[in-house]
Design goal:
By secondary structure, this protein is an alpha/beta fold. It has 16 helices and 47 strands. It is 22% helix and 19% strand. The longest helix has 24 residues, at 571-594.
C-alpha cells in the first residue's frame, strides 16, 4: 500500500463506509413512527441510536423485512411511557409484544386499527387502563390477543366477533364489567369466534348471565376460563356442545340453579371447576367425564346426598374436592384406590361411619382431608405414607393422633442441584441447577388450572423443568437451565411458581436472550404437559445485560450526523471510489475462482479466507483418514459434484459423515467457507449439526453428524425402503418448519437457506426432520453486504419467482421453497414432473378434485387436516413475498393441523424406521449431492413455468 493512489483509495473507502452507514435501510415512514415512539418511551435499549432501526446493526427488539418493520418484541425490558397513535403508522407490523413492562400505561390507542397486518398483540402485565378499543375488531389477521394483568375497564367490545382468525383471547385479571357480548341481527359477538381455542376472562367484574347462545357445536374452544367474576344465572346447557373442551372454570361466581345434565357430554375435559357458586339441586352426574384430572364442586348448595357412584369411572382423576356440598353417609373405600388419585378434600360435610383405608393400594395419594365431618371410626393400613386429616370428627374426640391435627402448611420448595455442588456466588449472582454462578432472568409462572396437589411435589416440577428445557433447546434459546422455587396457591386456586432462567455459556443474558425467552412463553410457544393446564408468565425486569456501554445517545447521534455531513461533501469522490472498488473486487473474485483453496494446510493460520468459527473442531487430515478407515470403499456412502461422502466413527463411538471435496468441485471455496461459518453457529434439533472440518494438506472436508435414514425425497420416492403415513408427514413438515423458523427468527444474524427442498430435509433414526446443506445460505445481516441482492441460485421448481425476477433474496424466498416441499409431502411428486409444475397442478385440483394429485399411498386413509395443510402450502407459494406467511406462522398452522388430526405437536415420536415396512431398495446417502441442480438466472428463465 505504498503508492499515493492506493493511499487515496483507502481514505475514500473509509469515507464511503461512513456514507453507507448513514444511508437508511428502513422505510422512512416506519423509521419516523418508531422514532416518535422512542421519544415518549423511557429505558429503550441502548442500541436504539441513529435513524435506521433496520440498519446494521439493527435496533434490538425490532424485526424487519425488506426495509419494513414487521415486529416489536420488548418483553420485560423495563420500558415506561405510553403507546401513542404513532404505532398505527407501522403498516407492515405483524407482531407487537410489550408484555411485563409495568411502566407502560395510559390507554390503548383506537388508531391501532390501522395495523391491518397485525397477527400477534401481547400487552399483558403492563399498566394500561381505560376501555379495550372497539377498533381491535377490524384487525382481521389477528390470531393472538393477550391484554391480561392490566387495569382495563369497561365492557368487552362486541366487534371482536369479527376476528375469525383469532386463536387466543385473554383479558384475564383486569377490571372489565358488563355482560358477555353475543351477536344480534345488527352486531357481532363472541359466539362468532368459532376458530378461537381460548377464552380467558377470569379475575374481572363481568356480570349478568352467561348467554345460552354464546356456545355452539362449531366452536373449537379448549379453554373456557370465567372464574372469579360476578356472573349470575344458570350454567348454559350449550356448554355441553363444546366437544373439544379441556378446561372449564366457572368457579367463584354467583351462578345458581341446577347443573345441566348434558355437562357430562365433554369427553376430554380434564380440569372441571364449579366451586364457590350458589348451585342447587342434585350433585351433577359426571360419569361421562372420563378424562378428568381435577374436579372441584366445593361450596355449593346441592341437595343432601350420599357419596355419588360415578367416581368409579375416573381412572385419571388426581384431585377430588367436594368441600361443603352436603354429602352424607360413608365414604366408599374404593375411592382411595383410584390409580392416579393424589388428593381428596371432603371437608365440612356430614359424612359418617368408618373411614376404611385398610385395603388402599394407591401409592400416589398425598392427602385425604375429611376435617369437620361426623366420622366415628378409622381403619388404617400400616405404613400409610400420606397425610390424613380427621380433626373435628367424633373419631378424634379425646384422642391425640397425628391425623387429628389440622392441615399443616407445605414446606418451601426450590429446585435441587443437578448432581453437583453449588458454588459460593458473589454479588447478586445465583447458583443455577447446574451449579454455575449467573444472573438469572426471573418471573412468576402462574398455572391457572393445575392438577398438581402438594406444593413440594419435586417429581412434577422436575417434569416441568425438563419439558421447558426441551422446548427452549428446540427453539435455540440461550438458556442453560431452569429453576423452580417458592410455590404458592392464591385465593383463585392458581399455582404460582417462581422461575429462574440461567444463561448458556456466560453469566448473564443479552437483550435478545431475554425478549426471545419471554416471547416464547408470552406467545404460548412452550406447551407444558397437560397436567399443568393453561399458564401465564410474568417476567421481571432484567438489569444485568452483557456489554452495554454508558455513552449517551446524543453523542452517538452526533457522531452519525457528523459522518453524514462528511459523506455528503465527499459523495462524488465516494461514487468514484465505489466504481474503483467494484472493479478491484471483480478481479479478486476471478483470482479466487482460479485459486480454489482458502488455507492450504493450517486451519489456525490467520487469513481472511479462513472461516470464522464458533466452537467447531478443526480435524487434521490424519484424524479424518483414521476415522474413515483410510477412506475405504466400504465406507463410501455417496458421491456428487462436490466429491465423495464417507461414513466414519469418532473415538467416542459417535458416527459421522465426512464430505470430502475433490479438486475442481462444483461447490467451490466460497460455498465451502459459507457452510462451515453458518453451521458452526446454529444449534437446533431440526438442523443438521456440523461436528467439524478439515483444511489440512490442501484438503477440504466437512464432518457432520451421521443421519441414517436418507432424505425426505428418498422416502417419498420409495428409495429409502420405507414409506411415511400421514401422521409422520405432518411430523416431518413441523420439524422442517421449526428448523427453518429457527434460522429465520432466532439466529442473529438471521440465515436464509436459499435451497430448501426435499433432498435437503434429512430423517434421523426416529424419522425426525433436519434441515441440511448450507452451501448456498446467506446471513441476512452480513456486514459485507449493503443490500440483499444476490445472484439467483437454487434448484429448479423450488426457486421463488420474485427472487428470480428481482435478484432480491428474503426469508420469504425460503417460505416459497418450503411451500413447494409441502406440496411434495402431499403428492409425492417432484416439483417439475413430465413438464407439469406441482404448484399449478395442485391449485387447479383444489378447485375440482384434490384426490387426483394425492400420493396413492395416502388414498383410502383418513387424512385429517389435509385441506388446511394444502391451504398453508398454497399460501407459502403466493406470487409475492408480502402475501406469504412467515415461518413462525407456518409452524403455528402446522401445529394446529396436527392437533386437528389428534396428534400432539410437542411429543417427539418414539417410532423408528424399523417400524415401517422395509424393502431392498438402494438408499442414497443424505449427504450425497447427486441431485443438486444449481442454476443461474440465465438458465432458469427457460425452465420456470409461470404460475
Amino acid at each position: 500500500m505504498g503508492s499515493t493512489r492506493e493511499l487515496i483509495f483507502l481514505v475514500l473507502i473509509c469515507m464511503q463506509s461512513q456514507l453507507i452507514y448513514v444511508q437508511s435501510q428502513t422505510n422512512h415512514l416506519d423509521a419516523s413512527a418508531l422514532k416518535a415512539l422512542q421519544n415518549v418511551w423511557k429505558n429503550t435499549p441502548p442500541s436504539w441510536v441513529g435513524s435506521d432501526p433496520c440498519g446494521n446493526p439493527s435496533w434490538e427488539g425490532i424485526g424487519c423485512t425488506n426495509s419494513r418493520i414487521v415486529s416489536i418484541t420488548l418483553a420485560s425490558m423495563g420500558i415506561s411511557g405510553r403507546l401513542t397513535g404513532d404505532i398505527a403508522s407501522l403498516a407492515e407490523l405483524d407482531t407487537l409484544d410489550l408484555s411485563n413492562n409495568k411502566g407502560m400505561m395510559g390507554t390503548i390507542p383506537p388508531s391501532i386499527e390501522n395495523l391491518k397486518k397485525l397477527s400477534i398483540l401481547i400487552l399483558k402485565g403492563c399498566s394500561f387502563s381505560g376501555p379495550i378499543p372497539d377498533t381491535l375488531g377490524s384487525l382481521e389477521r389477528l390470531s393472538f390477543l393477550s391484554l391480561t394483568s392490566n387495569s382495563l375497564s369497561g365492557s368487552i367490545p362486541p366487534s371482536l366477533g369479527n376476528l375469525n382468525r383469532l386463536q387466543w383471547l385473554d383479558f384475564a385479571e383486569n377490571k372489565l364489567t358488563g355482560t358477555i357480548p353475543v351477536s344480534t341481527a345488527t352486531s357481532p359477538g363472541l359466539d362468532l369466534l368459532i376458530n378461537t381455542k381460548h377464552f380467558h376472562f377470569g379475575g374481572n367484574q363481568l356480570n349478568g348471565t352467561i348467554p345460552l347462545t354464546l356456545f355452539n357445536s362449531n366452536m373449537t374452544l379448549i379453554h373456557l376460563l370465567f372464574e372469579n367474576n360476578q356472573l349470575t344465572g344458570s350454567i348454559p346447557s350449550t356448554i355441553g356442545l363444546l366437544s373439544n373442551l379441556e378446561v372449564l372454570r366457572l368457579d367463584r361466581n354467583r351462578l345458581s340453579g341446577t347443573v345441566p345434565p348434558n355437562i357430562r357430554n365433554l369427553p376430554i375435559v380434564h380440569e372441571f371447576y364449579l366451586s364457590n357458586n350458589q348451585l342447587t339441586g342434585p350433585i351433577p352426574n359426571l360419569e361421562g367425564l372420563t378424562a378428568l384430572h381435577s374436579l372441584d364442586l366445593s361450596n355449593n348448595s346441592f341437595n343432601t346426598e350420599s357419596f355419588p357412584s360415578w367416581y368409579s369411572s375416573f381412572s385419571s382423576l388426581m384431585t377430588l374436592a367436594m368441600e361443603n356440598t352436603q354429602l352424607t353417609g360413608q365414604v366408599p373405600a374404593a375411592v382411595f384406590s383410584l390409580p392416579q388419585l393424589q388428593s381428596v378434600v371432603l371437608r365440612n360435610n356430614e359424612l359418617n361411619g368408618t373411614l376404611d383405608l385398610s385395603s388402599n393400594s394407591n401409592s400416589q395419594l398425598e392427602l385425604v382431608d375429611l376435617q369437620n365431618n361426623s366420622i366415628a371410626g378409622f381403619t388404617e393400613r400400616p405404613g400409610i405414607g400420606f397425610q390424613i386429616i380427621l380433626a373435628e370428627n367424633p373419631v378424634c374426640e379425646g384422642v391425640e393422633r397425628t391425623y387429628c391435627i389440622p392441615l399443616q402448611s407445605n414446606p418451601p420448595f426450590s429446585s435441587p442441584p443437578n448432581n453437583c455442588i453449588p458454588p459460593t456466588c458473589s454479588d447478586d449472582q445465583v447458583s443455577s441447577p447446574n451449579c454455575r454462578c449467573a444472573y438469572p432472568f426471573t418471573g412468576n409462572f402462574t398455572l391457572r388450572a393445575p392438577s398438581i396437589v402438594g406444593l413440594g411435589n419435586s417429581s412434577l416440577y422436575s417434569e416441568l423443568q425438563s419439558s421447558m428445557m426441551s422446548s427452549f433447546t428446540s427453539f435455540g434459546l440461550p438458556v442453560d437451565s431452569v429453576s423452580i422455587s417458592n410455590p404458592i396457591r392464591n385465593t383463585d386456586n392458581y399455582l404460582i411458581l417462581k422461575l429462574g432462567f440461567f444463561p448458556f455459556g456466560t453469566d448473564r443474558f443479552n437483550r435478545t436472550g431475554i425478549y426471545s425467552t419471554a416471547f416464547t412463553l408470552n406467545n404460548q410457544m412452550f406447551k407444558p404437559p397437560v397436567i399443568f393446564g393453561p399458564y401465564l408468565f410474568g417476567g421481571e425486569q432484567y438489569i444485568h445485560f452483557q456489554g452495554e456501554g454508558s455513552g449517551s445517545r446524543k453523542s452517538n447521534t452526533g457522531i452519525i450526523v457528523g459522518a453524514a455531513i462528511g459523506g455528503f461533501v465527499l459523495v462524488m469522490l465516494s461514487i468514484l471510489a465505489g466504481v474503483y472498488a467494484f472493479r478491484q473486487k471483480k478481479k479478486a473474485e476471478k483470482s479466487d475462482e482460479q485459486n480454489n483453496h482458502f488455507a492450504s494446510g493450517n486451519p489456525g493460520k490467520s487469513s481472511s479466507r479462513i472461516p470464522q468459527l464458533k466452537g467447531t473442531k478443526a480435524f487434521t487430515f490424519e484424524e479424518v483418514k483414521k476415522y474413515s478407515n483410510n477412506f475405504s470403499e466400504a465406507n463410501d456412502i455417496g458421491s456428487g459434484g462436490y466429491g465423495k461422502v464417507y461414513r466414519g466413527t469418532l473415538p467416542s463411538g459417535e458416527m459421522i459423515a465426512i464430505k470430502r471435496a475433490m479438486k475442481g468441485s462444483i461447490q467451490g471455496a466460497i460455498e465451502f467457507k459459507s457452510e462451515i461459518e453458518l453451521l458452526s453457529r446454529v444449534h437446533h434439533k431440526n438442523v443438521v449439526s456440523l461436528v467439524g472440518y478439515c483444511l489440512d494438506q490442501s484438503e477440504e472436508m466437512l464432518v457432520y453428524e451421521y443421519i441414517p435414514n436418507g432424505s425426505l425425497r428418498d422416502s417419498l420416492s420409495g428409495q429409502s425402503g420405507f414409506r411415511l403415513d400421514w401422521a409422520r408427514r405432518l411430523q416431518v413438515a413441523l420439524g422442517a418448519a421449526r428448523g427453518l423458523q429457527y434460522l429465520h427468527e432466532l439466529v442473529n444474524p438471521a440465515i436464509i437457506h436459499r435451497d430448501i427442498k426435499s433432498d435437503n430435509i434429512l430423517l434421523d433414526s426416529r424419522l425426525n426432520a433436519k434441515v441440511a446443506d448450507f452451501g448456498l445460505s446467506k446471513a441476512f445481516g452480513d456486514p459485507d453486504q449493503t443490500h440483499i441482492i444476490t445472484q439467483v441460485k437454487g434448484t429448479i421448481g423450488y426457486v421463488d419467482p420474485e427472487y428470480y425476477t428481482t435478484n432480491q433474496l428474503t426469508e420469504k424466498s425460503d417460505v416459497y421453497s418450503f411451500g413447494v416441499m409441502l406440496l411434495e409431502l402431499v403428492t409425492a411428486k417432484q416439483p417439475i414432473e413430465k413438464g407439469k409444475y406441482i404448484v399449478r397442478e395442485v391449485r387447479q385440483r383444489m378447485e375440482n378434485n384434490i384426490q387426483e394429485v394425492i400420493d396413492p399411498l395416502l388414498l383410502g386413509k383418513t387424512l385429517n387436516g389435509l385441506e388446511k395443510f394444502v391451504d398453508v402450502a398454497l399460501r407459502c407459494v403466493k406470487e409475492t413475498g408480502a402475501e406469504r406467511p412467515t415461518m413462525g406462522q407456518v409452524v403455528k398452522e402446522i401445529e394446529n393441523i396436527m392437533q386437528l388430526a389428534g396428534l400432539n405437536p410437542e411429543v417427539e415420536s418414539t417410532v423408528t424406521s424399523a417400524n415401517y415396512e422395509w424393502t431392498s431398495q438402494a438408499v442414497n446417502h443424505p449427504y450425497s449431492d447427486e441431485s443438486l441442480l444449481l442454476y443461474n438466472g440465465s438458465f432458469l428463465s427457460s425452465t420456470l413455468e409461470p404460475h
